[in-house]
UniProtKB/TrEMBL annotation:
One of its GO terms (biological process) is anatomical structure morphogenesis. Residues 1-101 form the ZP domain. InterPro entries: Celegans_DevNeuronal_Protein, ZP_dom. The lineage of its organism: Eukaryota, Metazoa, Ecdysozoa, Arthropoda, Chelicerata. It comes from Araneus ventricosus (Orbweaver spider). This is ZP domain-containing protein.
Length: 101
């Protein structure tokens, strides 16, 4: 699975799998296209990847400051559906991290 982040300005934050900040991550180096690769072999269980039949999922966090979490940070739920040999459909949904009340 790959998570690509395209930004209009250089990205210097961190992209990581939820709960695995120091294990499965990509540190931005100022580029506009940033990719976190989660291999299937390393994703179970080192990166928090879950498998349900032909579906694998993971939550990816985009933290815009490498050391401090802010309200700008985002979580994305990645879901990969395997439909046949060499074929997969990947979807991503934004997870709202705000808490009310």
């Amino acid at each position: 699975m790959e998570f690509s982040l395209k930004t209009p300005e250089g990205f210097y934050g961190r992209i990581y799998t939820y709960g695995f900040y120091d294990t499965c991550f990509y540190d931005g180096n100022g580029g506009n296209v940033n990719v976190l690769r989660i291999s299937r072999a390393n994703g179970f269980p080192r990166c928090g990847t879950q498998q349900y039949g032909d579906v694998i999922t993971n939550i990816v966090v985009v933290q815009f400051n490498d050391y401090v979490q802010t309200s700008r940070d985002k979580k994305y739920n990645l879901t990969c559906y395997f439909s046949g040999p060499g074929e997969a459909v990947v979807t991503s949904n934004y997870l709202d991290t705000r808490t009310d009340g």
